[in-house]
Amino acid sequence: MLRSLQHVESHINQCRQISTTSTLLKNRAGKTKSTSNRTQLLTYEMAQKPHHIGVRKSWLTWHSQNLEEFRQSQPLVVAQDEVVRRFIRGFFPQNLVVSGNEIVIKRRGNVLIVAGFLQYSRRLDIRRIYWMFGFAEEFLSILLKQPVKLELSFVESEETVAYNYI
Amino acid sequence: MHRLTHIGARSKSTLADKLRNAVGGADYGKSKQAMVSGSLAAKDENLKLPYSQGEDFRELYVMPKRKLRGQTQLEQATGRAEIKTRSRFDLMDRLAERPPRSEEMDPEKQKWTDIWPAARTFSASVVPLPVRMGSRPNVEKRAPFKKEGNLELVKIPNFLHLTPVAIQQHCEAIKKFCTPFPPELLSDASLTPSVLPISVQYSTYIHQGTNIRDIRSRVITMIVDVASLKLSENALEKLVRLAGKRYNQETGKLTIITDRCHTRKQNQDYAHYLLTVLYHEANKQEAWAELKERSDNLRVEFDGSTTKSKLEDLIEKAKSAGLKTDEKALAEFGEMWKTYRNTEETAEKTREYGRQMKKMLGI
């Protein structure tokens, strides 16, 4: 019995092949699904397609590391951006607008500026917000070894940033 | 035995008894109340009493004393309890909310430079301008996206801190640190090389990141007007030989580029050092330098050339033959000959050569 199994195994090994599937030739980026009663909120950022970047909408991160002759630490910038975005998303969970996908990161000199929108419809606690801003700035400054400024402005609710409903 | 009496005591204090006591009179609760209030007499009495007469058992609350959430909800639904409305926990903060600053401010009376002193991200509540940004498929049907909550306005760099008034203020503030540009140089630019013979060029690179330094900013280019060094002919030739390609024959400028040190200051010092060394080396006259012959010259000289001796012979002959010759013409021809021999030959220059020769010989 075992011997026959061994034989089967060796047979399988001989027939091993690379499994392939047909490529999914479908563009999924920038496609939004509409609802029957037009309740899906779209911000301006979502409404414009990826090929409109630089034409109708601008970038979510601004720095000079992608300029010719200034490419000193492009990967570092990408990693820093991700760290900052994740931190803001996790630190202001009640105040996020469109789940924190639209946070603008600008760099000027050695300063990193985080801009965008937060909402206060769920909770408005001014002293707490001041403390959190201070903490976030201090924490990110120490982490990234450069001054970080939060220039996040507050809107009342997500409806303020709504460009369209589909 | 003990156990039995215990049971007996327990059998007496049934729920029915309790109720009876509660309805009938306050007899039952009396001893208990006295216990709770902590009167010594009651305690003494208790100590004396045997078990059968009974210290009552403590109440056991299986259910909590308060009403449960489901219970209150049921009561509220049936209208037996009134619904309490509580104010929001962040009520005070919401009451403290003010209309945006742009509506409160009086744009004509206040100083904009105080509101927006430095570069900052666009803030819709502060800027009192009716701005809109963004594209719409049909602008006449629906206007472009409004100012509040507009991410495009936040993304772009703005120049709200660089208003003409702000720039004027800035200039006035730094005026005391500046000296006026020499007016003589403004009126006559040709004076510049004689007054300012050395010019130093460098580039500063502005970009961002954790490290804002750029290694390219260390390079120094120093351009010196050699004529203002006032070198002798020999020294100048030696300097030209030493400098090599750094010396531009046409403009008479010496260009020294230094980039071997780490900082700009070091490179600038090094450039000045190089110039000093070059100057003193050029002025030195070595013993072997006197062995230089005519053929070692950088440029071909008219004096001592075979052309000159031949021409002089010719002129002598012409004089003896009685022809009229011009003494000055030989010197003029010498100048032309020098440039002709030392620069690239062109048809124009060859024609000029012929013209000068005819003029000199009086043909």
UniProtKB/TrEMBL annotation, chain A:
UniProt-listed GO biological process terms: translation
Statement: the UniProt record of this protein carries the keyword Glycoprotein: no
Compartments, record wording: Mitochondrion
Assigned GO CC terms: mitochondrion; ribonucleoprotein complex; ribosome
Leader sequence residues: none
Entry keywords, A to Z: Mitochondrion, Ribonucleoprotein, Ribosomal protein, Transit peptide
Record's keyword annotation contains Secreted: no
Coiled coil: none
Origin superkingdom: Eukaryota
Family: Belongs to the universal ribosomal protein uS3 family.
Designated name of the protein: Uncharacterized protein
Lineage: Eukaryota, Metazoa, Ecdysozoa, Nematoda, Chromadorea
UniProtKB/TrEMBL annotation, chain B:
GO molecular function: structural constituent of ribosome
Transmembrane segments: none
InterPro entries, A to Z: Ribosomal_mS35_mit (IPR019349), Ribosomal_mS35_mt (IPR039848)
All residue ranges annotated as the Small ribosomal subunit protein mS35 mitochondrial conserved domain in the record: 197-286
Coiled coil: none
Gene Ontology CC terms: mitochondrial small ribosomal subunit
Entries under Pfam families matching the protein: MRP-S28 (PF10213)
Designated name of the protein: Small ribosomal subunit protein mS35 mitochondrial conserved domain-containing protein
Upper classification of the organism: Eukaryota, Metazoa, Ecdysozoa, Nematoda, Chromadorea
Gene: Cni-mrps-35
